[in-house]
Design goal:
- This protein is of the alpha/beta class.
- It has 2 domains: about 110 residues, Rossmann fold (3-Layer(aba) Sandwich); about 150 residues, Rossmann fold, CATH 3.40.50.
- Helix content is about 45%, strand content about 15%.
- It has a 4-stranded parallel beta sheet with strand order 2-1-3-4, with helices on both faces.
- β1, α1 and β2 form a beta-alpha-beta unit.
- α2 packs parallel to α3 and α8 packs across α9.
- The protein is elongated.
Length: about 270
């Protein structure tokens, strides 16, 4: 089990995202990862180096360290551990300095610093919107950027919250009820917002597993009920030519990206 560390003088989110993406290219390599954020002083760098050295000794494996430290002294301390240290920002800095004619000014936590208050407020407002328009709590969709439609537990809520937090998108979701599934065509309250709709479906077996954890032993969680609801929902999506995708083996990140792309929403990833 190869030890992996994401070391940053900020939150470590950028470092972990890049490091995880790189490691995902190497199949069959088992590793145990740990994020070490806010390493913003020499004392913290020395403490972090101690953690890395101890893990290398325990595992008998050379550690892989992805880092975005801007302080050269702190970086040197980490390098002295003997680990494979990879600067996730380094390969881009010198080419950009040459291209832009501007020298980099190292800044701790720059990627996730609260500098754009308007953008931050938009994300908070979008999150509140997703919460107040979750699972049919409110049907006031006039200000919604998009509306996810699907049966209960098909992944609508977490997808809405992800898009709100990461893209500032005002996403509502509408749960298809028994009445909707037995009706003809699109539910009336959704008809004025046809251009904002996107359908989510899911494998009935997976849906049954999720519902069983929530309401064990209920009719709601039976495989027959799950199959019936999913079948009718997919039939509805096809009949009205509603774009939709399955959440069964798809991450929230991928689901969100595909939805925004198909609906033509170009909000920036924060």
């Amino acid at each position: 089990m190869r030890p992996v560390f994401y070391v940053s003088d900020g939150t470590g989110i950028t470092t972990e995202t890049i490091g995880h993406s790189v490691l995902a290219q190497f199949e069959g390599i088992q590793h145990q990862a740990r994020r070490l954020p806010f390493v913003d002083s020499m004392d913290k760098a020395m403490h972090t180096a101690g953690i890395i050295e101890a893990e290398q000794e325990r595992s008998g494996q050379r550690a892989i360290v992805f880092t975005s430290l801007v302080d050269a002294g702190a970086s040197a301390v980490i390098a002295e551990t003997g680990a494979l240290v990879l600067d996730v920002l380094g390969p881009f800095v010198h080419p950009l300095e040459h291209e832009l004619g501007v020298v980099r000014k190292p800044r701790v936590g720059g990627a996730h610093a609260l500098v754009d208050y308007k953008a931050y407020e938009e994300r908070i407002n979008a999150t509140n919107f997703a919460l107040t328009h979750d699972d049919g709590i409110s049907y006031n969709y006039a200000n919604a950027d998009l509306i996810l439609v699907g049966v209960s537990r098909s992944g609508k809520t977490p997808t809405c919250l992800y898009m709100a937090l990461h893209y500032g998108v005002k996403a509502a979701n509408y749960p298809l009820t028994e009445e909707d599934l037995h009706g003809e065509g699109l539910p009336k309250r959704l008809q004025p917002f046809r251009h904002k709709l996107f359908g989510l479906t899911i494998d009935p077996v997976r849906l049954q597993q999720i519902r069983q954890e929530r309401k064990p032993g209920s009719k709601y969680a039976t495989i027959e009920q799950c199959r019936r609801e999913v079948s009718r929902a997919e039939e509805l999506f096809r009949s009205i030519r509603l774009p939709h995708l399955s959440t069964t083996n798809t991450s929230i990140e991928e689901i969100s990206s595909k939805i925004l792309s198909q609906l033509g929403i170009q909000n920036q990833l924060y």
